[in-house]
Amino acid sequence: MNVWNWLAVGGAAVLALVTVAEIRRRVGTGAPGRRFFRHPTATPALFVLAFFVTVALAAPLVTPYPPYLQIDITRLASHPPSRLNPLGTDPFGRDVWSRLVYGARISLGIGAIAMLVAVTTGVVVGGVAGYFRRWVDATLMRLVDVGLAMPRMFMLLMVVALWEHVPLAVLVLLIGLTGWFGTSRLVRAEVLSVREREFVAAARSLGAQPARVIFRHVLPNAAAPIIVSAALGIGNVMLLEAGLSFLGMGVPSPAPSWGNMIADGWPKMAVAPWCATFPGLAISLVVMALNAIADALRDALDPRKETA
Amino acid sequence: MAAWLVRRLAASIAIVWAVVTLTFVIVHLAHGSPCGQPDGRPIAPEVCADLTQRFGLDRPLPVQYVKYLGALLHGDLGWSFALNRPVAAALADALPNTFKLALTALILDFALGIALGVYQAARERRFGDIALGNAALFVNSMPTFWLGLVLLLVFGQRLGWFPVGGLRDLVLCPRVDSLPCAADFAWHLALPALTLGVVGAASTARYQRAALLDVVRQDFVRTARAKGLPERRVLLVHALRNALLPLITLFGLTFPFLLTGAVLVETVFAWPGMGLLAVNAILQRDYPIVTAAALVASVMVVLGNLLADALYGVADPRIRVRAT
User: d(Cα A71, Cα A88) in Å, to the nearest integer?
Assistant: First the structure.
C-alpha cells in the first residue's frame, strides 16, 4: 500500500464524516431527526456505513492491487499483515485489503438489491392483502405462512447446488424473492388499520382507483415499519450471502465477496487467521451499523414504541 | 379449544405439505441426475440407467410425486442414493445429535439472555446497560459460523482447550456409555453450543430488556414499589413474570432455527446433525434426504409456532384461546 492509497483512505474517512455531519445538519432539526440522532449509536453507525460505501465506490483509489492479482504466489501467499499488505495476503497470494474493498461493492450491492426486491414484493403483497381483505388476503397470507415455514438458507442452497451455474443476478433475485414474507405481514397489519381512516374513505369517494388509494394514500402512512424492515433486511441478506458463499454456493470465486473471502481463508485459519478474520469483522461491523440505524429509525419514525 | 386445535393442526399439515411439494418440484426440475457426481467420477451408462429405473426416476414427475406422497403417508421416507440406507435411519442418526446441540444452545441462550436483559433493564441507560447493549448488538450482527470459526481458532487451535470438531473421540469413545465418555461428549459439545447460545443470547437479551422496561412502567409495578417491596423482588418476581411473555414468541422462532438453521455451525464443527446431513445430501444430489430434511425443517417451524401459542395460553390466562 503506498502513500496515495493511505491518503485516499483518509480522504474517504473525511468524506464519510462530512456526509454524516451534513445529514445531521439537514435532518437533525426536525422532531424525527432529533429522535434519530438522540440514539447514542446512530451517528457512529451512519459513519461506518458511509465509510464503507465511500471506500467501495473509490475502490481503485484506495487499493494497491486489483482484487484478483496474485502478487507473488511463491513468496507472498498467506503473508501476515505488513506495510505493503496492511491486512496480509490470502492463501492464493492476493491482497486481503484490496479484496475486502472490492468485496464491499459485491456484498453491499447484493444486500441493497436483494433488499429492494424483497421490500418491494413485501409491500405490494402486504398492501394488496390488507386493502382488499377477504379471499385475496386469505390466499396471500396462506402463501406467506408457507414461505415462513420454508427453511430459507436450505432452499437457496438447494437451488444453487442442483441447478448448476446459477448466475449471480438470479441468485440475488432469489434471495430477494425468499425474503419478503415477514415484511408483507408487517405491511398488511399496518394497511388494515390505515385503510379504515377517514382520509382513505375520502379518497375513495372522490373516485380514486384502488391502486392509487393504496400507493398514494395508504402506504405512505404505513412507511415506518417498511423503512425499518428495509434497514434490517440489508443486514440479513449480507449474513445470508456470507453463509451461502461460505459453503461455496454464493458468489463464485475469484470475484471477491466477504462471504467467499471467509471461505477462501477458512482452510488456512490456523496459519493465516487474518484471511478469514477481517472479512468477518467487516460483515459484523456493517450489519451492526445497519441494525443500529434500524433501531434509531424505529424510535424516530414511531415515537409510540420507544426502545431506548 | 378442541375446534381451535383441529383448525391449527389442519393448517399446519397444509403448510408442511406445501413445503414438501415445493421441495419436490425444485429438486426434480433440476438439471442432471443423481448419476453425475459433483466430483466428476464417470459412471457407466448401464449402471446409471439401472439406478434411474430402480429409484423410479424414469417415471413422469406426477407419478413420482404421487408415489412419494403415498409412501410418506405410510411413514416411508424413501431410500438414500448416496448413503445406500433408508432415509429414516439416516435421520434417526442425525436428529438426536442436533437435538442435543440445540437443547444445550437453547438453555444457554435463554439463561444468559434473560440474565443480561434483566441486568440491563435494572441499570437502564447507565454504563453497564449501554456497554452490554452494544456488545449484544455486535454479537447479534456477526455471521454465526464466523464466530464459530474464531472460537475454534482461539479455544480449539491456539489454546487447545477444546477439540476442533466432531462429536466425540472416535478411538477412546466409540459410544457414549461411561462417565469419561459423557465428559468427552460434553467437551466436544461446548464450542458449537457456545457459538449458537451466545448469538441467541444476544438477541434474547435485547428482547428481554425491552419487554422488562415495558412492564416496569405499568401500574402494578408502581403498586409493588409503593407497598415497600425491595427493588430486587419487584423486578425479579413481579415484573419479570410478565416480561417473559414476549420471549415465548422468540422461543417459537428460535426452536426451529436451532434445528435447521444450524446448518453452517454444524459444518464448521463437523457436528453430524441434521444440518451437515442436509448439506451433504444437497451436494451429492441425494433427493430423498433433501426432501426429508425440508420436511423435518417445516415440521419444526410449525411445531415451534404451535408450541408458542400453547405456552401463551399457559403463561397468560387472559389470552387463552376461545373456541371459535
Answer: 12
Chain A residues with beta carbon closer than 8 angstroms to that of B155: none
Contact at CB, B153 and A269, closer than 8 angstroms: yes
> What does the alpha-carbon distance between residue A64 and residue A71 come to, in Å, rounded to a whole number?
11
Question: How far apart are the C-alpha atoms of B71 and B77, rounded to whole Å?
Answer: 7
User: Which runs of E-coded beta strand occur in chain B?
Assistant: none
Highest mean pLDDT range out of A100-114, A196-210, B229-243?
A100-114
C-alpha pair distances (Å), A168 with each of A106, A173, A243, A297, B287: 10, 9, 15, 31, 24
> Which one of A155, A158, A235 has the shortest CB-CB distance to B141?
A235
**3-state class (DSSP) for residue A95:** strand
Element spanning B90, H or E: helix B87-122
Q: Is A274 on the interface with B (CB under 8 A)?
A: no
Start-end of H helices in chain A? 3-27, 31-38, 42-57, 59-62, 96-132, 134-149, 152-162, 168-177, 181-194, 198-205, 210-212, 223-246, 258-265, 274-301
On whether the CB atoms of residues B292 and B87 are closer than 8 A, the answer is yes
* Residue of B254, B241, B291, B284 whose CA lies nearest to B91: B291
* The three cell numbers locating residue A291: 441494525
Residue A48: which of B69, B294, B134 has the closest Cα? B134
CA distance A272 to chain B (A): 11
Q: How many residues does chain B have?
A: 324
Residue B171 CA to residue B181 CA, distance in Å, equals 11
**The C-alpha cell of B63 is what?**
407419478
Helix extents (H) in B257-321: 263-268, 274-283, 287-315
Chain A residues close to B26, C-beta within 8 Å? 155, 158-159, 162
Task: Report which of A157, A110, A122 is spatially closest to residue A286, judged by C-alpha positions.
Answer: A110
Distance (Å, whole) CA B292 – CA A61? 50
Q: Which of A54, A24, A50, A56 is nearest to A37 (CA)?
A: A24
Q: For residue range B112-164, what is the model confidence (pLDDT) as tens digits?
A: 999 999 999 888 888 888 889 889 999 989 998 999 999 988 888 888 888 87
For A95-122, write each residue's pLDDT tens digit. 888 899 999 999 999 999 999 999 999 9
Phi, psi of B78 (to 5 degrees): 105, -175
Instruction: Enter the C-alpha cell of residue B119.
Output: 441486568
N- to C-terminal Cα separation, chain B: 8
Phi and psi, residue B79, nearest 5°: -125, 125
* Amino acid at position B213, single letter: L
Q: Are B128 and B215 in contact (CB under 8 A)?
A: no
B24, B295 contact by CB (below 8 A) = no
Could you tell me if A159 lies within 8 Å of chain B, comparing CB atoms?
yes
Burial of residue A113, with CB atoms counted within 10 A of its CB: 0-12 exposed, 13-18 middle, 19 or more buried: middle
